[in-house]
Amino acid sequence: MFIQLLVSIVFLFLLLILLVLFFIRHQSKVPYYRLTQEQCVALLKRAIQGVLPEYEWHAFLGMTVRDDDALDELRERCLLIDEFGIKGTQLINGQFCISFNKKGLSQLELLLDEWQHKLHYLV
Predict the structure, then answer these.
(1) pLDDT single digits (tens) 67-103
(2) Residue by residue, what is the 3-state secondary structure of 1-59?
(3) Can you tell me where the transmembrane regions are (predicted)?
(4) Beta-carbon contacts of residue 122 (< 8 Å; ≥ 6 apart)
(5) Segment 30-38 long-range contacts (CB within 8 Å, at least 24 positions apart)
(6) What is the tens place of the pLDDT at every residue in 73-82?
(7) 3-state secondary structure of 120
(8) Interior CA angle at 114 toward 93 and 78, to 5°?
(9) How far is CA 40 from CA 6, 28, 52, 84, 123, in A?
């Protein structure tokens, strides 16, 4: 009787260890996207031109940039522009694109100018 209890406990312990290892190995991971400075400059250019799809703008604003503080600061500045500088959306080539008011466009142009210069000097 004692041996059966001991075997059962060992079996349950091993089963628990296997389950933990399985879940650690196959856990779903949160998607993590890495942005480059070139991608951010291209995003700003398309935003100014009025051809940036709405979902790309909101995806950029919604993600956190963990590996580059400067890019995360750019994203936060774009959040402020989003709050006060959006006019609405317009349908271009079957996609809803963000359109900015004059204040938003001027702020985006300043950011683009700043980041185009940073692009050549930052590594």
Answers:
(1) 788 889 999 999 999 999 888 888 888 899 999 999 9
(2) CHHHHHHHHHHHHHHHHHHHHHHHHCCCCCCCCCCCHHHHHHHHHHHHHCCCEHHHHHH
(3) 6-24
(4) 37, 70
(5) 32/66, 33/63, 34/67, 35/60, 35/63, 35/65, 35/68, 35/71, 37/71, 37/115, 37/118, 37/119, 37/122, 38/119
(6) 999 999 999 9
(7) helix
(8) 55
(9) 61, 28, 12, 20, 14
Residue type, 121: Y
Instruction: Name the packing angle between helices 69-84 and 54-62 (round to 10°).
Output: 130
